[in-house]
Amino acid sequence: MAGVAELETCFVETFALEPGTDPRSLQFQGIPEWDSVGHMQLIAAIEMSFDVMLETQEVLDMSSFDKAVEILQRHGAGV
Amino acid sequence: MNCAQFAERGAAPALLEDGTDRWLDYRGLTQAVGAAADRLGDRPLVFLFTGLTIAGCVAYLACLEAGAPTGLFGAGLPPGRADALIRLYRPHLVVGHAPEAGYAEVAGQAGWYRRLGDDAPVPHPDLALLLSTSGSTGSPKLVRLSRHAIDSNAAAIVRSLGIAPNQRSVLNLPFSYSYGLSVLNSHLAAGASVLLTREGLTGAGFWQRLAAHQVTSMPGVPMVYEMLRRLGFENLAPPSLVTLTQAGGKLAAPLIRHFSDIMTARGGRFFVMYGATEAAPRMAVLRAPEKLGAVGRAIPGGRFEIEDGEIIYHGPNVMLGYAESAQDLTLGDRLSGRLATGDLGHLDDDGVLWITGRAKRIAKVNGLRFNLDEVEALVTARFAPAAVIAADERLTLLIEADDRRSAEIRRDLATALALPPASVRIQCVARLPLSENGKIDRDAVGRLVA
Questions:
Q1: pLDDT, tens digit, for every residue of A16-42?
Q2: CATH for the stretch B3-356
Q3: Which tens digit of pLDDT belongs to each residue from B80-91?
């Protein structure tokens, strides 16, 4: 599951997560770094890493790590 | 904008905050503001730390009503910043933050702290409001504004944007930030209503709330418009939303065109605006797409002139001056309505202002103003000598440090500057490039981070 590790990297890099923080535990607006601006930066990182273009509704729905996996799978990305 | 005016509006809605669907009407607002003003006493110097809440609005309005000079700050300041401000300016009363020492909580007034010593400064009679010049670098320099500057600017904004009582703005910018405060002031001055929310605009809840409460107007800094274009604003905006305003930095012409086209198609309006905290804050307004890329005409009561390329603004909304110490709060008007903006530009034959650059090393990232020299001083004090460049909505720091420390430095600075980590880039070098006179070689820095 190389894709999952890549998704984790997107979260860690975007939010500058401390070592040991599990990206799976995070929610939109659950940490100061994941605000609207951080969200769009996360989306940009994910789109670049997985070479996908997300729709408006998908961007709004991507409020957790698991949601991101689910949406990327719909796009046929290997996660 | 005062209680007598508010009272006349009776049951018209005034404010709504997160977690409820019940509007506070103008009658209720009048009562709350009047009661809080009565408890303030004789013109104390108040420092108010507040988020986007009705309680915060009421405290701010009560201070204005009571004639109490007020420093207005965000609730989420980096650690130590609030206490540093309190130590420097020695306010009589602190609201919304528990000072580390020298204050006692006022009986029956949770969250109000009164100074124990009698060494608070006696502010000048004209002083009404103190705002931070920079949202984030920890700069303790404040802008001193008079009541007349605030009221005249609110009235000028009402006229420029045509704000009517039936309009309703969402406010998701802190009102310790001058743009956010001007949205609140202008709508209350017009008898319109304001929906305060901390919901992020990338969440479904934000758009549902706008639709449910028939919001007509929305402000945004350039970063917001970048996000809205990517999100697909036209798919999200409820039909009621017909006015967009933009301030807080220069918006790229293609984005102005994009949103102006969308709003025209919706039968709405898109305004680009120019201002500065030092002007309480609005100086110019332009309804796009006229003169695409310009910043607009001076607001009613104001005018621009160009001196040696620098934009000079004249108007009743210009600050009294800066404050850098408690002693400075006793000063009166030092500027006589004339503000040298530090921006470079020209006026065209129709009296429309165009900006071409900045005289000072000031940059805007994420809608916040950064003095790059202050950022460099802060980084140097915390870590090691550094040079900073602002581009593409990011601060890039060239720093004399080991690469292995870059993640830690980035985390620390993002917190200290109140920026999202992705807006801070760290590039480690062994030595900063210096020019012959020993100063940082800006051209070389530019080439290194390119």
A1: 898 889 999 999 989 888 988 889 889
A2: 3.40.50.12780
A3: 889 999 999 999
Fold equal for B3-356 and B362-449: no
Distance from C-alpha of B436 to C-alpha of B259, rounded to nearest angstrom: 47
User: Which of A37, A55, A63 lies at the smallest CB-CB distance from B420?
Assistant: A37
Residue B125: phi and psi, rounded to 5, are -55, -30
pLDDT digits (tens, 9 = 90+) for B218-276: 999 888 898 899 899 999 999 999 999 999 888 889 999 999 999 999 999 999 999 99
To the nearest whole angstrom, how far is the Cα of A18 from the nearest Cα of chain B? 8
The edge-to-edge listing of strands for the beta sheet with B321-323 is: B103-105, B112-115, B93-95, B46-50, B70-74, B127-132, B142-146, B321-323
CB atoms within 10 A of CB B402: 11
Q: Which of B338, B255, B261, B345 is nearest to B295 (CA)?
A: B345
Domain boundaries, chain B: 3-356, 362-449
Element (H, E) at B386: strand B386-391
Nearest to B429 by CA among B390, B402, B394: B402
Q: How far apart are CA A54 and CA B259, in angstroms?
A: 21
Compute the distance between CA of residue B169 and CA of residue B162 in angstroms, rounded to an integer.
Answer: 13
By the 10 Å C-beta count (0-12 exposed, 13-18 middle, 19+ buried), B294 is classed as: buried
The whole-angstrom separation of Cα B163 and Cα B11 is 19
Q: Which residues of chain B make contact with A33, given a CB cutoff of 8 A?
A: 414, 420-421
SS3 at position B391 = strand
- What does the alpha-carbon distance between residue B152 and residue B49 come to, in Å, rounded to a whole number? 25
Nearest CB neighbour to A36, from listed B201, B232, B236:
B201
| Contact predicate B214/B49, CB 8 Å | no
Q: Which CATH number fits domain B362-449: 3.30.300.30, 3.20.20.70, 3.10.50.40, 2.40.50.1020?
A: 3.30.300.30
Rounded-to-integer distance, Cα A67 and Cα B5, Å: 49
CA distance A67 to A72: 8
B282-288 and B269-275 strand pairing: antiparallel
ipTM of the complex: 0.78
* Cα–Cα dist B282/B217, whole Å: 17
Closest Cα of chain A to B450: distance in Å?
20
Cis peptide before B254 (omega within 30 of 0): no
